[in-house]
Amino acid sequence: MANTLYLGIVGVGGVGTALLEQLGRLSNPPKLVLLSRSTKTLVAQTPSYSHSIPFEAWEIAAAAPSITTVDALAPEDTAAYLGSAPGRSILVDNTSDLTLAKAYPIFLKQGISVVTPNKKGFSADISLWNDIFASAADGNALVYHQATVGGSLPVLSTLRDLMATGDEIVKIEGVLSGTLSLLFDTFMPAIGKSDAKWSSLVAHALQIGFMEPDPRDDLNGMDFARKLTILARVAGLQVTGPESFPVTSLIPNELLSLPLSAEGIAQFMLELPNYDEDMEVAKLKAEEEGKVLRYIGSIDVSTGEIQVGMRHLDRDNPIANLKGSQIVSIYTKRYGANPLVLKGGGGGGEVTAMCVMSDLLKVMEGLA
Amino acid sequence: MANTLYLGIVGVGGVGTALLEQLGRLSNPPKLVLLSRSTKTLVAQTPSYSHSIPFEAWEIAAAAPSITTVDALAPEDTAAYLGSAPGRSILVDNTSDLTLAKAYPIFLKQGISVVTPNKKGFSADISLWNDIFASAADGNALVYHQATVGGSLPVLSTLRDLMATGDEIVKIEGVLSGTLSLLFDTFMPAIGKSDAKWSSLVAHALQIGFMEPDPRDDLNGMDFARKLTILARVAGLQVTGPESFPVTSLIPNELLSLPLSAEGIAQFMLELPNYDEDMEVAKLKAEEEGKVLRYIGSIDVSTGEIQVGMRHLDRDNPIANLKGSQIVSIYTKRYGANPLVLKGGGGGGEVTAMCVMSDLLKVMEGLA
């Protein structure tokens, strides 16, 4: 168990910084030999890789003995560098970069394990998904991406455990966007009433930093659809991609053509109140049934049917009263009518880093 | 990764039988070289251990080539046998036997990993707990006992993940008895009303096999307290044992002296209706507050305070509407006010076996 493991970390934003801090507290951490941010990369001296980069802020790390600062490396070069280390190595990708994700197979084939919260690769074309896992098998490397679905909830590991032990997944339902969860919960609370206009709730969420900088990135449902794609693939479905199933966008049709610029965002927020009536109508329809309106995703594993959109739920449905949490209900053959439910606060840098760290610890155990 | 792993299974009841079936479906199972039930043990021929016991019913397994049937082995002999296998070995204990559990340190010191749903050892004296984990470290062996808490919910692994990544556990609350969950949920539903008497609900649950053969084993709260002890210990508290904190027994004081015999059970069920009034009063008190009565356990990690008993909960508290599920809410520093919640159906042989199997797969990965 005393084999040295070599670690490369790409991305030093909120998640990367929190991860470095958590690594610094490990009693037996892997050896950090590559640390990369957008334009610069720190590397340890080859061919010995004998010095390691300290788990510190960039400037301190860069000044450590035998650590060199080079320009940003292409994914292939990062793979070649880690692949030449005198032991098993691990890539942690903290970016949301598709280019790097597309290169995972190159890493994996060389036996470099991959740990990442980056959804892009796993929700892109199914051929990349299949290539990733075939390459991992080829290279005898591990791939962990728990944080790509359900924030810090142990959704993927639980699902994989159920399947590895021969249970049959019947259906998966959930709310995989903390932002949309909070918006719908305040727009139409399960208990009590609210008169707040939809557009004013969106404006408020944007103001307090609870949405993506461009709110349309939350409202179009695509982030949710990407997570659902990953979940369905882990459940065994060969889903072509997040565009291959119906996703209800909460962006009014008339506003779809607004530019992606800051002006486009401002224009969108200015015009959104004109469409409040549509959301009021949707709310009223749910109310007439004595139910609440929620934005949820579902996967029917037997029919392969996947959808993301608004649905009417009973007020006592656990999904109806989330207050900004995410939730996933897994129905299986063994569990019957009483699904396995995982619920909890969403992401955030430190929590996501914890999830990455937990994956990393498993990979370290697996390679030890 | 091609090292052969040697497996010994003790206990071939509901869980053991389901586990054998699940093992039979693995593409790369460990080599079963010991299978033991109360009075008989099957072993593979030493010193080669080259034949394995098939994953089949006892009679078929016993008739396999080079498999010998011997009398029940003492734990020390089982450990000696597994310890002499020409590779790493694993003990799966499917019993609820304290004697075998007390011998875990003997196995672990010899490098034999332990996987078990048996609560007895982990909730007994704290010195055994400490001995188990110290022995595992000594012998470089693994101990997995996920199924001892929360049925098949990934409670312990999630808790350990949180702690391994440096989160601080603040508080844990939950319902760790599917039986008591169902009794209280039908006695005082979160939605709607019930006029059913407490004693008649107990009688019904007993009749449909949803309780232990002696219902007092559920009603005294000790099984719940044992699970809470394990949970608290994993959270880092050195809990002396399940008798070291307040546990409200649902057995009326006057009936405590009834014998443990079948006659005692019959007498207990006959007299229980005389105490329905007490439960009605408890129910009324909750109702006056607009709340519901539930039987829950809680661990305050900072003060070390642990308790199991009846509490008044808001009707919209997720714990209030379980319908026989178990639930655990984990409050941590990172999660803040929004706890991580795990909820799902209780145990049952096949589900418990799945949980054991999932642990076993992790041990196999760890030893490979």
If you had to describe this structure to a student in words, what would you say it looks like?
The structure is a homodimer of 368-residue chains. Chain A has helices spanning 14-24, 58-62, 75-83, 98-102, 104-109, 119-123, 126-139, 155-164, 178-187, 198-207, 216-219, 222-234, 262-271, 276-288, 349-367; strands spanning 6-10, 31-36, 40-44, 67-71, 89-93, 113-115, 143-144, 169-175, 292-300, 305-313, 326-332, 340-344. In chain A, strand 9 (292-300) and strand 10 form a beta hairpin. The first copy, chain A, is built from 15 helices and twelve strands. Chain A has two domains: 6-152 and 350-367, 3-Layer(aba) Sandwich (Rossmann fold), CATH 3.40.50.720; 155-346, Dihydrodipicolinate Reductase, domain 2 (2-Layer Sandwich). In chain A, helix 1 packs across helix 15 and helix 9 packs across helix 10 (198-207). Chain A is globular and about 70 Å long. Helix content of chain A is 39%, strand content 18%. The relative contact order of chain A is 0.14. In chain A, the strands form two sheets. Chain A has a seven-stranded mixed β-sheet, with helices on both faces. In chain A, strands 10-9-8-11-12 form a five-stranded antiparallel β-sheet. Chain A is α/β, with parallel strands linked by helices. The A-B interface holds A 1, 22, 25, 140, 152-154, 157-158, 161-162, 164-167, 190-191, 316, 318, 321, 323-325, 334-336, 338-345, 350-351, 353-355, 357-358, 361, 365-366 and B 1, 22, 25, 140, 152-154, 157-158, 161-162, 164-167, 190-191, 316, 318, 321, 323-325, 334-336, 338-345, 350-351, 353-355, 357-358, 361, 365-366. Strand 12 of chain A pairs antiparallel with strand 12 (340-344) of chain B. Chains A, B: It catalyses: L-homoserine + NADP(+) = L-aspartate 4-semialdehyde + NADPH + H(+). Chains A, B: This is Homoserine dehydrogenase. Chains A, B: Residues 154-361 form the Homoserine dehydrogenase catalytic domain. Chains A, B: Its EC number is 1.1.1.3.
